[in-house]
Design brief:
The protein has 8 helices and 6 strands, in the order E-H-H-E-H-E-H-H-E-H-E-H-H-E. It is α/β, with parallel strands linked by helices. The protein has a 6-stranded mixed beta sheet, with helices on both faces. Helix 2 (29-41) packs across helix 7 (176-190), helix 3 (57-71) packs parallel to helix 5 (92-108) and helix 5 packs parallel to helix 6.
Length: 254
């Protein structure tokens, strides 16, 4: 990571940091955690986070990529398309074309780019039906990374994220520990030294019986899936009225 003294994170709720709450009412998240690790190694390090929850990929390209290139960072992390994938009828091939435009713009501006694949949802009820679409999208992202010489954080292969403790109650956003492990994985990809390993086994977990699991699944669908569908039908987004939490390249404060 030598010479990577400025870092801009772009994306949606995953990169904004939901659901990893900070004391000031915002979110921490893997990107903030990664920035702290990089700052400890790199003198004069600066960091910005332009990600906003609920953003679709085209919105990320239109709203965040121009801001990121204008900041002229040495490193940009890009994760987007997850919200699009959730929409019925969305096209993974078309999404990948939009994603490539963003990568091309960032690389043309001189930034190193780190790409994040999508998660493997095989352990998440209702979302596992999207597994094939996500796999196709991920294959495109690997190809984009190869064409533009980008590093990749392969979330799909992170088996530690199959543990329910890696996720918040909505099963769509990582828990604080999930974010910490993704930050450690990204640090490994970038060659940043850390004191811990992202794939440290979880402590044993007491298994729930089938009936308890189904009750939890129904509660999750009622409290999180149904409201999400309602927002989609109304054309609303969790990000309406939300601004980036860290729009300027600034030193990382302890």
């Amino acid at each position: 990571m030598e010479g990577l003294d400025s870092f801009v994170a772009v994306g949606d709720s995953f990169t904004e940091g939901m659901d990893d709450p900070a004391p000031n009412g915002t979110y921490v998240g893997w990107a903030d955690r990664l920035a702290a690790m990089m700052s400890a190694e790199q003198q004069g390090f600066r960091y910005a986070n332009l990600a906003v929850r609920g953003k679709m990929l085209q919105e990320i390209v239109d709203e965040q990529i121009p801001l990121a290139t204008a900041l002229k960072p040495k490193l940009v992390t890009l994760c987007g398309g997850g919200n699009d994938i959730l929409v019925p009828g969305s096209d993974a091939d078309a999404l990948a074309e939009v994603y490539e435009i963003a990568v091309a713009d960032l690389r043309a501006a001189g930034a190193e780019v780190v790409i994040f694949t999508g998660f493997d949802p095989k352990h998440t009820p209702l979302l596992r039906s999207l597994r094939g679409k996500i796999a196709i999208y991920n294959s495109h992202l690997w190809s984009v990374a190869d064409r533009y010489h980008c590093k990749v954080v392969d979330l799909w292969s992170m088996n530690v994220l199959h543990d329910r403790r890696a996720w918040s109650a909505d099963r769509l956003h990582l828990s604080p520990e999930g974010h910490r492990r993704v930050a450690l994985r990204a640090a490994e990809v970038l060659g940043v030294e850390t004191d811990d390993a992202w794939n440290t086994p979880w402590p044993p977990l007491v298994d729930e019986d089938w009936m308890t699991q189904r009750r939890h699944d129904l509660k999750w669908a009622r409290e999180h899936v149904v409201p999400w569908i309602g927002r989609q039908l109304r054309g609303e987004s969790m990000g309406d009225g939300v601004v980036p939490k860290r729009p300027e390249l600034l030193p990382v404060c302890d």
